[in-house]
Amino acid sequence: MITAKDIMETKIISVTPDTDISQAVKILLENHINGVPVIDEDKKIVGILCQSDLIFQQKEVLLPPIFTLLDSFVPLASSSKMEEEFKKISAATVEQAMVKAPVTVSSDTPVSEIASLMVEKHFHTIPVVDDDQVIGIIGKEDILKTMTS
Question: Which one, 59, 101, 112, 148, has the greatest CB density within 10 A?
Answer without folding.
Answer: 112
